[in-house]
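Anyone up for a design puzzle?
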C-alpha cells in the first residue's frame, strides 16, 4: 500500500505540523494534505513580536477573518476552508495575547494596538497590495472596525458577525440598559449555552483547545480584553468608516444572546445600513461553517460591484451611510 498523507484536527497543543510514519498531522484542518483549501499554520514577526496565523490559499480576493474572545485561528479552520472553496484567500491571525501570538504589554491592550498589529501582519505577508475584505466575529468584529477606520486604504469591505461594537445591552419600550451594566455571570451563561455544537466533535475540539491554551498562557490578557469589550462603544467610529465609503454589512444570528439584538441595531444605525438576520446563535460561524461561508461569500461577491444589489434570499442591502462620499 502506498504512502498515505492525511490531515487531522486535534484538541491538544501541538506544533503546526507533526510527522509520523505515513501520516502528517496538521492541527486545525481536516482536509487532505495537498488540498489548496486546507488551512496552513504560519507565523511572522511584527514589531518584534510573533504573530501566528492560519492561511487558506485561493486565487480570489483576500479575506481577513478575525476571531472572537478566548479563541484563536484553529477554531475557525472549517469556516476559513469553506470560504476558500468559494475562491477566496483567507488569513486568520491570532490576535496578540491569543493563540500562539505574543502578548502585548497590558497598557497596550487596546483596539488601536490590535489593529496596528494586524495591519503590520498584512504588510509583512504582502496582503496590503490590494484592499482586503474584513470579516470579524464577536471581539474580532470590534478589531475589524478599528482596522477599517485606522487603515481604510487597506480595506475594501467590512462584515461584522455578532460583533461586540454596540453599546446597548437591552432595549425595552423606552428603557435602555447599557452593556457596561451587564453582569459577568450573564455573559458566561450565554457563552456556555451557545457553545458551537453544530460541527461536534471537530470544531468543539478546536474551540476547547484554543480556550484551554489561552487560559493557560494568556489569562491576564484575556481578563483585560474582556473588560475592554464591556466598555466599548464604537458607534462614532463605525459612522466614520461608512463616511470613508467602505462597504459594510452586519450579520446577527437570531438566537444570539451574547451579542444582543440591541447591540446589532446600534451597529446598523451607526453604519446607516440594513442588517441580515440568520438562524443560529453566537457560535454560528463555527457551528455552521458552510452557511457562514455561503452568507459571507454572497455578501462579498455582491458588494464588489457598484451600485450593489441585495443578495438573493438575503435581507441585507450593501449600503453606505447617508452622506457618504461617492
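Challenge accepted. My sequence:
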Amino acid at each position: 500500500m502506498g504512502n498515505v498523507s492525511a490531515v487531522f484536527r486535534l484538541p491538544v497543543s501541538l506544533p503546526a505540523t507533526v510527522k509520523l510514519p505515513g501520516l502528517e498531522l496538521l492541527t486545525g484542518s481536516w482536509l487532505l494534505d495537498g488540498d489548496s483549501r486546507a488551512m496552513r499554520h504560519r507565523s511572522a514577526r511584527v514589531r518584534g513580536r510573533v504573530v501566528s496565523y492560519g492561511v487558506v490559499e485561493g486565487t480570489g480576493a483576500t479575506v481577513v477573518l478575525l476571531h472572537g474572545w478566548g479563541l484563536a485561528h484553529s477554531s475557525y479552520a472549517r469556516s476559513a476552508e469553506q470560504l476558500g472553496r468559494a475562491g477566496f484567500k483567507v488569513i486568520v491571525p491570532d490576535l496578540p495575547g491569543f493563540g500562539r501570538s505574543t502578548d502585548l504589554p497590558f497598557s497596550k491592550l487596546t483596539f488601536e494596538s490590535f489593529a496596528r498589529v494586524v495591519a503590520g501582519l498584512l504588510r509583512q505577508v504582502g496582503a496590503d497590495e490590494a484592499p482586503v475584505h474584513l470579516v470579524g466575529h464577536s471581539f474580532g468584529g470590534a478589531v475589524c472596525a478599528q482596522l477599517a477606520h485606522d487603515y481604510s486604504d487597506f480595506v475594501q469591505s467590512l462584515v461584522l458577525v455578532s460583533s461586540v461594537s454596540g453599546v446597548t445591552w437591552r432595549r425595552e419600550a423606552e428603557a435602555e440598559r447599557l452593556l457596561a451594566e451587564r453582569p459577568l455571570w450573564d455573559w458566561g451563561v450565554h457563552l456556555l449555552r451557545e457553545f458551537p455544537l453544530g460541527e461536534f466533535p471537530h470544531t468543539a475540539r478546536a474551540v476547547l483547545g484554543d480556550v484551554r491554551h489561552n487560559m493557560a498562557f494568556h489569562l491576564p490578557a484575556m481578563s483585560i480584553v474582556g473588560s475592554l469589550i464591556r466598555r466599548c462603544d464604537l458607534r462614532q467610529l463605525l459612522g466614520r468608516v461608512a463616511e470613508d465609503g467602505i462597504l459594510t454589512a452586519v450579520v446577527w444570528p437570531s438566537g444570539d444572546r451574547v451579542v444582543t439584538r440591541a447591540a446589532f441595531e446600534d451597529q446598523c444605525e451607526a453604519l446607516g445600513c440594513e442588517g441580515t438576520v440568520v438562524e443560529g446563535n453566537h457560535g454560528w460561524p463555527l457551528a455552521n461553517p458552510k452557511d457562514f461561508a455561503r452568507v459571507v461569500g454572497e455578501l462579498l461577491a455582491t458588494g464588489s460591484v457598484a451600485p450593489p444589489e441585495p443578495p438573493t434570499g438575503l435581507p441585507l442591502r450593501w449600503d453606505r451611510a447617508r452622506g457618504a462620499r461617492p
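A detail worth pointing out: The chain has one domain: 37-302.
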